[in-house]
Design goal:
about 250 residues; 7 helices
Length: about 250
């Protein structure tokens, strides 16, 4: 199994609270998010990791060189990192093996290691992570479930969509090699028509809606995690999330 970590973004919404660093280099109890990712991945059946960098990429390279996990991890630079996450995903297209599953991860998440372990060991070939304990609003990327099946995946859900319940997507995914290849093909098509402003999640939604029978999810409700987007997330991470994961 391979893993791709998307870590190219600037993190404008954090403002000066990020200290000018890429979000994957934010430290909690002295440990960077990147180091936490690599350390956890090294305990899973993952053989190779690719980190897509952009903003202040040399600092990420330096941090990666200091992590002694025994896991093969390299970076690839996206020079157009200011133009959206879809381009960052497409930058990793040469890393995809059609015969090998792949984890796809956002770099700006602080989480309990059991979340990633649940994903890597899932019996579902193409798997989302769903947390039913979330605050509704425009910001969370939502997963909608009807009759035990996923029926949509988006921030803005159509008002007439029928579903039994919804949860927030963690931002980590497991895909088969052929679905990863499909995502890369779709990314190329988006870029060909200059539709690069769409988030990469739209590619995943396209696949889900076309092949709904091929996707499922793991419910990780109750396990602590937080995507770091805003200054208040840094406070919550320190006060609420970190104490719940430090004993892992």
């Amino acid at each position: 199994m391979k893993a791709i970590i998307l870590a190219a973004g600037i993190g404008n919404r954090l403002g000066p609270d990020a200290g000018g660093r890429p979000k994957c280099l934010l430290r909690f109890n002295g440990v960077s998010l990147l180091s936490r990712h690599i350390t956890i991945l090294a305990t899973l059946p993952v053989t190779e990791v690719l980190i897509v960098t952009g903003y202040r990429s040399e600092e990420i390279d330096g941090e990666l060189a200091s992590i002694n996990s025994g896991l093969s991890a390299t970076t690839i630079f996206n020079p157009d990192y200011r133009s959206g996450s879809l381009i960052s995903l497409y930058t990793a297209r040469g890393f995809v093996n059609p015969d090998e599953p792949c984890l796809l991860m956002d770099a700006d998440v602080l989480y309990h290691r059991d979340i990633l372990a649940r994903l890597a060991s899932s019996s579902h070939e193409n798997c989302f992570l769903l947390d039913r304990d979330f605050i509704p609003g425009e910001e969370p990327v939502k997963l909608c479930v009807r009759d035990g099946r996923l029926v949509d995946f988006r921030k803005q859900i159509a008002t007439d969509l029928v579903f039994d319940y919804q949860g927030e997507s963690v931002g980590f995914f497991r895909f088969s090699g052929d679905i990863m290849g499909d995502l890369m093909r779709r990314a190329g098509e988006y870029l060909d028509r200059r539709d690069n402003e769409q988030p990469y999640e739209e590619l995943i939604r396209d696949c889900l809606l076309e092949y709904p029978q091929r996707f499922s999810f793991e419910d990780i409700t109750g396990l602590p995690w937080l995507e770091i987007d805003f200054p208040e997330d840094l406070i919550r991470a320190e006060r609420e999330i970190l104490p719940r994961i430090e004993g892992q």
